[in-house]
What does this fold into?
Amino acid sequence: MAKKTLNLTVEEPIKERAKYIAKKRGISVSKLFEEAILREDEGSGEFEFKPGSAAYRIYHLLPESEKVIEYDYKKLKEEALREKYDL
It folds into this structure.
């Protein structure tokens, strides 16, 4: 995906803190921002596997018909238990 420029207006101490944290982690402030947004978005139910990770490789071994994009964990758990215990 192509990168786009985004200008942010923040208080000076926030700017300096972001630069410090990014430098400490060995990443750019832009990457720090991206990671913060992705962490914030983790609760949305969508998975973004890091390319090259074991999860990424396993996920891409699954046939498209078996991939679950949106799921209800409680419902899936209930279905699995019903199947397991013939309920």
The first helix runs from residue 12 to 25. Residues 46-87 form one domain. The mean pLDDT is 84. The chain has two domains: 9-44, 46-87.
